[in-house]
Amino acid sequence: MTVSTLTTPALRDPSVDHAIQSIVAGASTDATCSTDLAAGPWDFDTRPGYGPGSSMGDVIPTGAPRQGELPRAYREADEAQLHARIQAARATLGDRLVILGHFYQREEVVRHADYVGDSFQLATAAKEHPNAEAIVFCGVHFMAETADLLSQPEQAVILPNLAAGCSMADMADIDQVEECWEQLAEVLGPLDQVDADGLLPVIPVTYMNSSAAIKGFVGRNGGIVCTSSNAQTVLEWAFARGRRVLFFPDQHLGRNTAKAMGVPLEQMPMWNPRRPFGGNDAEALADSRVILWHGFCSVHRRFTVAQIDQARAEHPGVRVIVHPECPMEVVDAADEAGSTDYIRRAIDAATTPTTFAIGTEINLVRRLAAQYPQHEIFCLDPVVCPCSTMYRIHPGYLAWVLEELVAGRTPNRIQVSADVADPARVALERMLAAKPPVATQDAAPRA
Ligand code: SF4
User: Fold this and answer.
1) Which of 141, 217, 154 lies closest to 414, judged by CA?
2) Are residues 160 and 39 in the same domain?
3) Last residue of a domain, one of 379, 402, 434
4) Are 304 and 291 within one domain?
């Protein structure tokens, strides 16, 4: 994957933040998942839970990082004041600073980013700036960890709000995964010994959306990382080395990818970490090809087949593209499924005005609609409900970390310890070395 696929944040568009503010003010009647989103995220940062947004119902792990109180000056500043403060701090820091903005980030933040992309593209972009002293990652915790893994040791990777985690990444914690590994060894025998065909019993594969601790586990145990763009290539790499795959944390990406490769659903048991042997019997595990961790993205889980049916009824000829983190039924009902970068490229490549119904995070869909006015582009889910944790990166936090840097302090640094970072890099390097058998297209249009 190359950084050239990144986009620059040139366009302003009506953001989710503005949409919610206008609903609260009575200027709009759009539905939202919670008008509490209009409050500053600092109102939620001291409480347990992910806060308003699509992950609101998910359970936040104890021990997840919390953010200390943001100084009053930033909480009370209006958007124009924060914008001016961010601009001034950026000008002072110059090339010492790189700001990265995830595709799903709110527009008020993305407008300040030097690069906009998915998590791996942004980590790669950070690598392209070895002389920048600070890399401010406007995304979520695991993304900042990945940037730290790929950047120089002396560079500081900063997450503006430490409460910006990822509910999906949090669904596979390292203790649960270690326990799963031990239980699999009880059923499958020693996991580090190859059989007569030279295959290991199981290869662990983790989605990029996982903690550095999980990536380190995978690296230590002969496994590999994947993205939503290269999941099939990575599974092919794993099947060349093992009888089966343990895939985490996202069950949907694992199931959708393996199903497209011809793995029967009966050979994809689910591993529920709260039950002995994941809730499976020994026979099901022995017969498995892909063991799916019981994790999901609360943003992409919101999409339904009924929404696709409605889009087709209301917009004859509509082209439906969904992210592979969506449930299998939704991917099956769509015209195409692919990563955020695939979605962006598919729209970019359309040469005639087209109606697109997109199944992914609302901020990205709104930005695409603004960037490609020749097409009609809308989100399959009519309810404005962004990723709760990504939404925690408010311009107030961005202004605060930049002004701290100007003052010579380094707030909210994300650092992965060497014992985790070394094997995690091994797992990432395996991913980079794994090559697809054909062209590097990340998802083929479904027939
Ligand atoms: S959109 Fe889903 S996977 Fe991405 S950061 Fe939010 S919760 Fe995590």
Assistant:
1) 141
2) yes
3) 379
4) no
In this structure, which residue's CA is closest to atom 6 in ligand 1?
387
Ligand 1 atom with the smallest distance to the CA of 139 is 5
Q: Please indicate, yes or no, if residue 432 is contained in any of the structural domains.
A: no
Closest to 167 in 3D by CA, of 15, 57, 18? 57
Q: Determine the Cα–Cα distance for residues 44 and 293; give it in Å rounded to an integer.
A: 29
Q: Which residues of 223-252 are buried (b: 16+ CB within 10 A; e: fewer)?
A: bbbbbbbbbbbbbebbbebbbbbbbbbbbb
Task: State how many domains the chain has.
Answer: 3
| Ligand 1 site residues, Cβ closer than 6 angstroms | 55, 104, 140, 166-168, 209, 297-299, 361, 387, 389-390
Burial of 152 (0-12, 13-18, 19+ CB in 10 A): middle
Instruction: Report the separation in Å between the CA atom of 124 and the middle of ligand 1, taken as the mean of its atom positions.
Output: 19
- Predicted confidence (pLDDT) per residue in 175-200, tens digit: 999 999 999 999 999 999 999 999 99
Distance 392 CA to ligand 1 centre (A): 12
Bridge partners of 356, per DSSP, are 319, 377
- Domain ranges, residue 203: 174-295
Per-residue pLDDT reduced to its tens digit, 43-68: 888 777 888 888 888 888 877 888 88
